[in-house]
Amino acid sequence: MRIAYHCEDVVGRRMAGPGIRAVELSRRLAARHRVTLVAEGADELEDEPFGTSRDLGAVLRDSDAFIAQGFGFPLPHLLRFGGRLLLDLYDPVQLEQLARMDPHPTAEQIVQVGYVRRRLQYLIRRADHVLCASRPQRAHWLGWMGACGRLSPQALAGDPEASRLLAVVPFGLPEAPPRKGDSPLRRAIEAAPEDRIAFWSGGLWDWMDPALAVRAAAIARKRVPRLELALLAGQRPGNAAPPMRAAAQEARAAAGPGVHFVDAWVPYEDRGAWLLDADLAVSAHRPSLEAELAYRTRLLDCLWAGLPAACTAGDVLAMDGEREGWARAAPAGDAEALADAMVALCEPTANEKARSAASRAAGEHTWQRSADTVLALLAEPAPQRPRIIDRQTPAIAAVFARKALKKLFR
């Protein structure tokens, strides 16, 4: 099968979640199919099993399937494409937008949310398969699919649970373990060998709460004096996401002794060495719908590196982490509770126990497992899309007319 894989975000040496997902899945799908990745920076990738292009229209003309994350391409491409569409909605972008807005949004924000909503409605109606990252996300998108008329009797006839129409394809982890480096994190913050390092490894997005982590670290330092908090605060690569500054500015304003902002975006292939340099990870988000449906890749990386995590509760991976023993979660906004979690994971026995739990859980989250789900979808016929006109159209029109007249003269 010939597959066109489109990603709005940049790919290459430095990339964020959407680009990472596109590259990693393309690598594994290319073992069975001819895959062409269309993304900014794709032509700079070397020694990949997939092809690359900048011309999505040309690639689609020679493709049987189109995998897209929903944005960054003209919709008329879909009008001319007769193949199978796999719509990857692992990132609940509309909820991220809403989480960044105050009660009095600007006109531009209102227009942008409306645009995203209408585009998603069109894409969901057109999609042959929708991909998401977790069971809570699946419930969310099932609601959208029902409202868009995609849950038709024809589609469910051979797929009564809609497991092929809406499939859970989590963000994954490399099968190979991370490699140690020359202590890049400790060098970046000039840490002493005896310092304990808590590491904020993802971006300072506005729906996150790095200021809470800063306040919690200050409390924890009273009990663990050599605790250092390092936060990655580099510029996000690419232009797919709008600039976000509020959360970062709040965190910098709250920072005191022992807090370090590393103004760099760590190359994708190097991130393992940074994670292995830390004693624990820290992640905190604000209360929002985004948090309820998020699939925190920064927590997923903790499993890959066997790194215990102190985090706020509410998202899927935080709940998994508490149940499986590799994370300790605190209520959103509670600096004291997050500090307690950080202090507990600094204790050597508890830290080692959490590391072992993380390593055990990592095998359930590989990219190959996620790719296998997509490969299984492609191996079978797609669920039927609702027909606009079929043999029952006259009968449907007659029923509608009778009911309309009945209501008119009631």
Summarize the structure in words.
The protein is of the alpha/beta class. The protein has helices at 17-29, 56-61, 76-80, 93-100, 107-126, 135-147, 153-157, 184-189, 210-220, 246-254, 271-276, 289-293, 297-305, 316-324, 335-346, 348-362, 367-379, 393-408; strands at 2-6, 34-38, 51-53, 65-68, 84-88, 129-132, 166-168, 196-200, 227-232, 259-262, 280-283, 309-312, 327-330. The chain folds into two domains: 2-173 and 366-393, Rossmann fold, CATH 3.40.50; 184-364, Glycogen Phosphorylase B (Rossmann fold). Helices cover 44% and strands 14% of the residues. Strands 3-2-1-4-5-6-7 form a seven-stranded parallel β-sheet, sandwiched between helices. A six-stranded parallel β-sheet has the order 10-9-8-11-12-13, with helices on both faces. β1, α1 and β2 (34-38) form a beta-alpha-beta unit. α1 crosses α17, α4 (93-100) packs antiparallel against α5 and α9 packs across α15. The longest helix has 20 residues, at 107-126.
**What is the CATH homology-level superfamily of the largest domain?**
Glycogen Phosphorylase B
Uncertain regions: pLDDT < 50 for 5+ in a row? none
Radius of gyration: 23 Å
Q: What's the domain count? A: 2
**Distance linking N and C termini:** 56 Å
Question: Would you tell me the overall average pLDDT?
Answer: 93
Quickly name the level 1 CATH class of the largest domain. Answer: Alpha Beta
Helical content band: 40-55%
Sum this structure up briefly.
The protein has two domains: 2-173 and 366-393, Rossmann fold; 184-364, Rossmann fold. With 410 residues, the protein is an alpha/beta fold.
